[in-house]
Amino acid sequence: MNVHKYDVFVSYAHRDDEALQKNARGWVRTLVETLKIKTDMLVRGEKSEFWMDPRLAGNRPFEPAILNGIDQAATLLVFLSVQYMDSYWCNREKSAFLDKLQHLPDSEGRIFVVEKTRLAEGQTLPPEFARLPRYQFWQEDPISKRDTPLGDPVPREEETLYWSELNRLAQDLARELNRRRASSANPGPDLPNPDHFPPEAPCVYLAEVTDDLRRKYHEVKSYLEQYGVLVIPKAPHDRRDHDAYQKAVLADLKDCKLFVQLLSGLAGDCSGEFPGFPVYQHQIAVACQSTQTLPILQWRAKELVVEDADSEAQKALLNQPSVRAEPIDDFKKAVREAALAKPQPLPPNKLVFVRASNCDWSLANQISDSLSNKGVDVFSMIPHDAPGLTQDQIEQDDQECLNQCDGLIVVYGGHSALTWARNQLLVNRKVLAQPNRPVVAVYVAPPPDKPELGVRFPGMLPLECRGNPIQPDESMLNLFVEKLKGHRP
Fold first, then answer.
1. In terms of domains, do 300 and 396 share one?
2. Whether 222 and 110 share a structural domain
3. What is the pTM of this model?
4. How far apart are CA 297 and CA 151, in angstroms?
5. How many DSSP H helices and E strands does the chain contain?
6. How far apart are CA 314 and CA 297, in angstroms?
7. 469 DSSP assignment
8. How far, rounded to the nearest angstrom, does the alpha carbon of residue 99 sit from its chain's CA centroid?
9. If residue 140 lies in a helix (H) or strand (E), which one and from where to where?
10. Domain that holds residue 448
11. In angstroms, how far is the first alpha carbon of the chain from the final one?
12. Which residues contact 458 (CB under 8 A, 6 or more apart)?
């Protein structure tokens, strides 16, 4: 039983549906008719009913028939475009449907947004659409960097991206219609919405991708959701304002267990000093690691030639140690296992001793703060000129920390620290050689042109960080913490 006369109300700007030839179907009508066929293949019970204003006039009055169609429709299908945003009548339709939703007990999942074009400069995505899934029917040409619509003027068989988005839209729409029909046939508590996840569900941030990876993006997303993993963001964030974009991504990452990214050789928009949004998203995730534990899992195709990537920044991203070059099915499984794994907190007795010369004291404090934020207990060495303490007392404290620690980081920073760092490892060599020795790492800090330390011994972990002069290298410290987690004295 269907309590609504129409399953879908189609809201679009008529200029988006103007055909290039007389008596030909326009772009919107072509998509809607194909969508209906595909939806009917998936929907249970009666075929779906779409309400679509057949007129082509762009300045028609807001007729009672339109209001009646909105009032009797279960869902709203919006064709978002430059023309849609400029249309007074489209805005009226949107407002009327949203007003109707305010009086319904089950108002979520009723709006589907098709992006026909990217919005123009100065146009802002309606806030009501910001957190909704969107279906992108345009792509950016990797050479000209211009937007091109999919399926224009008519879809071709080889346009796999068009059909992939259309199939995804049909599946999501049919699923929502089936849910509502089942709920109407069985009055009582609302049936669970498959888009809703319990509060305890693990949350994964799946980074936005370039157009060539959109099919794999949705493949990974659907796979994870089948296993009860909440994948965010639900809809892409507006990338035109980089600061606002960063804030939105950081807000999403706050509650995430993993940062997952699919990569290709395309760098996206690299205008000005902007490195492209794949690189930018990764930079945001790395910055987030200074305040929370956020593993980064990245994928690229095995056959990808890194040197053919769009930019030097994209090449560097593809060469990150966290990037896995493997079949996508293997990567999906790895992400699933990491997302569903029960947290393994560090035992309370895990302790790291951070040692640095006076010239690197500020950096050592930053490293200690970062490790502490990652759930590690940290002791820093006492300065040799600490007031009120004798040299013997300072050395005794040094030795006790070394004996008790599970991990040791020696900071090798300024030029003058060479002999100091070598001496630290040499003097304590016998302690570090014991069977229950701690995890030992040498944090090689800037400047980059200083002499090599020239020390090697089994188990030593070199943390090469001289290319990160402003703050501690979070990816290197994460490697150290991961090794510390698996360390058994």
1. no
2. no
3. 0.58
4. 34
5. 15, 17
6. 16
7. -
8. 32
9. strand 138-140
10. 351-485
11. 66
12. none
